[in-house]
Write a structure and sequence with these properties.
It is built from four helices and five strands. With 105 residues, it is α/β, with parallel strands linked by helices. The protein has a five-stranded mixed beta sheet with strand order 1-3-2-4-5. α2 links the parallel β2 and β3. α2 crosses α4. It is globular.
């Protein structure tokens, strides 16, 4: 996993998102827009360190999590605060918008 990004799986998803703010990117290796989203998240991670964590869920490997959160298209990004989804975005998202959402959370 890229520096600053957490790989989220069925084993750690609940623990990693239970407290604080977590931006979760649902992606797959074959998804073009997902590959474009990753560098944006890598640039954002150090800017929001201490305020939020950024995690990635590979939907091919973690289908149960994708189903639980009703992810039908990728990339889908969820902003989770203290275990509750507060924002859902579908499609490629820009760094400034994501940073603003995290700051407001």
């Amino acid at each position: 996993m890229s520096e600053g990004l957490i790989e989220l799986t069925g084993a750690n998803f609940v623990a990693e998102t239970a407290q604080g703010v977590t931006l979760v990117d649902f992606w797959a290796p074959w998804c073009g827009p997902c590959r474009m989203q990753t560098p944006i998240l890598e640039r954002l991670a150090p800017k929001v360190a201490g305020k939020a964590r950024i995690g990635k869920v590979n939907v091919d490997e973690e289908q149960a999590i994708a189903i639980q959160y009703n992810v039908r298209n990728i990339p889908t990004l969820l902003l989770i605060k203290d275990g509750q989804v507060v924002q859902q975005m579908v499609g490629l998202q820009q760094e400034a918008k994501l940073q603003q959402l995290i700051e407001n959370a």
